[in-house]
Amino acid sequence: MAFDPKQNFTGNPFGAADMKRAGSGKKVGKILLIAVVVLFAATIALGAFTTVDEGHVGVRYQFGRIVEDDIPPGLVFKIPYVQQIVKVDVREQTYELITNAYTKDTQTVENLIIKLNYSYDESALSDIIRNVGIQNVESKLIIPQLQSVVKNEIGQYRAEELIQNRAKVQSTIEEKMSESLSQGGILVNNLAIEDIDFEDGFEEAVRAKVVAEQEALKMQNKTKEKEEMARQTVIEAEAEAESQKIQADAQAYAIRTVQQELQNSPEYIELEKVKKWDGKLPQAMGDSINPFINFDQLTGQE
What's the chain's average pLDDT? Predict the structure, then answer.
């Protein structure tokens, strides 16, 4: 069989198959490319949205720089690979400090527990992030300042005074912490001294003193009660004496009045007899009757 050089281009039975396989490969490649593009587009689309939960504020970063710090809760759009949304919890936070301190008379306050409730000033959120960092607020701001204020304030009181003025000390610490932290964008909502624990020996001494003072107060109250009872007795006696004096004065006045009437009018005694007469005539036995009333004197007849 003679060789025909055109056969490779027109008569080779394997050429059509190779061309078919090549066309099929290109189609698969196109499908894969489309799939990759769609997947990439879907990834981009999904990455363009995020959500900010309730109780949080969204902070938008663009190439690492804060461009917005007050994004409200809800669905938020961002440019993928260009912008980032960081969620900041702006709800009330609680920090509990457990430490020791010394009073003015060098008594040791053991297991001193302070609870501080605070929140972020949302208008200063960018400054907090730039200058301190949300994650560093407690370690860099709250803990060192609270330690300092608490120990300085407790050191102003003797141990017994500290117990008696606990509410005042708590209020003063809260006021100073509020003033100090507000400069860094932190709002103090509440501060409470949860526990003040002294050494056992001192607590026993304080309890004994309190018991003694309570007993002394009871005795003092009893003394005052007795003094008041005695005073009331004196008042009652004086009132009784005054009443008797008034009665005596009245009787003396009545006697003087009667005596004066007797002197001015001898018939006065006869008038008194008439007033006291019950209307019954006297009964008598004997030859003579002593009349009870002298009617002649009353009527003026002889």
Answer: 79
